[in-house]
């Protein structure tokens, strides 16, 4: 028998982020012929779309004097111009014009990062480009599948991305943070099951024969207008490394076979979450709520987006307060509860990715992350 | 790529030095601060030439995944400025001051197809690119040209790895490279990466421009160390400062001017940035432009030159016998 020793995760209160992976940089509709600036994993990016519709992510600093290219102009074809001295780059990040000279310095390039448009998002790869395989983009197919409808938003969160992952991997907090919408005591009282493989973690929880909380009662009545009575409720949390969590959620009339697989007497949603580290202490939290019933109703889409947005505002306030308390108490450790099993598997998978890249797992106590590699 | 090119100087130990072709040594270094070398990267290092520290750049031929071993290869040129003699004298256990791998010649992943062109010792910049393209399953052709077979480093290894993707051109075996045919046959969407002598690179740049394909798909790197003519000793004069000095064959004009106490402005010292530009006031002889800063038009006009790499020679045919007068070329310049 082999005893495999693994290091404790508890001390990494501010987790570093892997670079050899895909992160969402923007919603597809944000990427246009007007430049935007967005920082992903401490790298400022200038993001735009070429004349023929291809998305581009260049480093947001001119080769010459590092002026932000995102403040420049989109030109014809695939080109953009630095706002300071007019140096022009193409979508490969190669200088095509130096206004003050007849030739182009062969070293005049800015990094152009691999990008893929998928699941209504623009995904960017900031690590070793030779490893960038689009097949490893997380499965978020409900985002643009004909059997699903819905929409979402972006939350700028001022905390380490891992705190958002922790939040989503353990939903017992709903009873206390979201008491008026989705929270109920049965969340903490019911049993849950955790499984994992090399890149995913799944946490499943079923609550049988309970009252539907207000959010779910409304959804049930959107599909079954006369519904009253008890429900069976499920939350199946699918994590895909390093920072995507799609949660299969829903309720069905109690005892109609939902736990066994027949969800026809219920309503089903998918909470789509992908969290992009911006800095050690901030993240872009992209989310959407997709449903597989009443697909024709834009009213329900708008109501769900507003409703979930209100729920997530409660999370945002808690995460900010938590990050502030973490930074104010540098000498105190995290302790873990049994309910943290899913979140701790997440941390372990991310730490393995960081170790494989030869980068530190902790982002330290203050300041920017170390990006030594 | 400025952010990735902040130099981190460190000690490195020579762990191996072997001849891999006539006058070419493969030197494997163990850096104190290992960092993986991307394709197209180089290291800077300090040589010691007659007691003086001089910086040189060498492409990384290959490295281990974790960067604990970095291989370069050095041609001992007959007209070396002294750096290659120093490098060839290194023994296992010797130490050097080097930088981490620096990147001025990045390989872009995702082009529809690639042509890699290596001329002579220029193969050192290309070996790692070819290996990466092979492992990515990319569509690529590797073209390796040289004057003779015994001067071709890594030829057996490249043949074994790249098979039919490798095309070899050897002057003295009658299979010399036709630049016109090469460029004409390149797919219009392909990217061509090249490293080699300046005559070869100038010819490819001209053919590429004439073909009016995307100019940025032609990628090259030059360390400013080859010219159209063999280097000769010449005389440089700066009338405003009352300076006249000799530029030995093994020294650049910029170095000679600095030696003579002229305060010079410069940056790249490899003929790319144009900061070391000087005005040509008078010339006895011809200019050997070795930079990539000036356009062909500007080089023909010869009103200004990059003194970090370009030189004066006695005659434009490159033959001393054709010189209009005896003695070395004389270049009179104005400096900023």
UniProtKB/TrEMBL annotation, chain A:
Stored CDD domains: RHO_alpha_C_DMO-like (cd08878)
The keyword Nuclease is assigned to this record: no
Record-linked Pfam families: Rieske, VanA_C
UniProt keyword annotations, A-Z: 2Fe-2S, Dioxygenase, Iron, Iron-sulfur, Metal-binding, Oxidoreductase
GO molecular function: 2 iron, 2 sulfur cluster binding; dioxygenase activity; metal ion binding; monooxygenase activity; oxidoreductase activity, acting on paired donors, with incorporation or reduction of molecular oxygen
Residue span, Rieske domain: 22-124
Record-linked InterPro entries: Cholesterol_7-desaturase (IPR050584), Rieske_2Fe-2S (IPR017941), Rieske_2Fe-2S_sf (IPR036922), VanA_C_cat (IPR044043)
UniProt keyword Iron present: yes
Source species, domain of life: Bacteria
PANTHER family (UniProt xref): 3-KETOSTEROID-9-ALPHA-MONOOXYGENASE, OXYGENASE COMPONENT (PTHR21266:SF60), IRON-SULFUR DOMAIN CONTAINING PROTEIN (PTHR21266)
Name this protein carries in UniProt: Aromatic ring-hydroxylating dioxygenase subunit alpha
Organism: Cryobacterium melibiosiphilum
Lineage summary: Bacteria, Bacillati, Actinomycetota, Actinomycetes, Micrococcales
From TrEMBL, chain B:
CDD domains (UniProt xref): fer2 (cd00207), PDR_like (cd06185)
GO molecular-function terms, A-Z: 2 iron, 2 sulfur cluster binding; oxidoreductase activity
Coiled-coil zones: none
Keywords: 2Fe-2S, Iron, Iron-sulfur, Metal-binding
Residue span, 2Fe-2S ferredoxin-type domain: 232-327
InterPro entries on file: 2Fe-2S_ferredoxin-like_sf (IPR036010), 2Fe-2S_ferredoxin-type (IPR001041), 2Fe2S_fd_BS (IPR006058), Beta-grasp_dom_sf (IPR012675), Cbr1-like_FAD-bd_dom (IPR008333), FAD-bd_FR_type (IPR017927), FNR_nucleotide-bd (IPR039261), MRET (IPR050415)
Cofactor(s) named in the record: FAD
Record domain FAD-binding FR-type: where: 7-108
Protein name per its UniProtKB record: Oxidoreductase
Species name: Cryobacterium melibiosiphilum
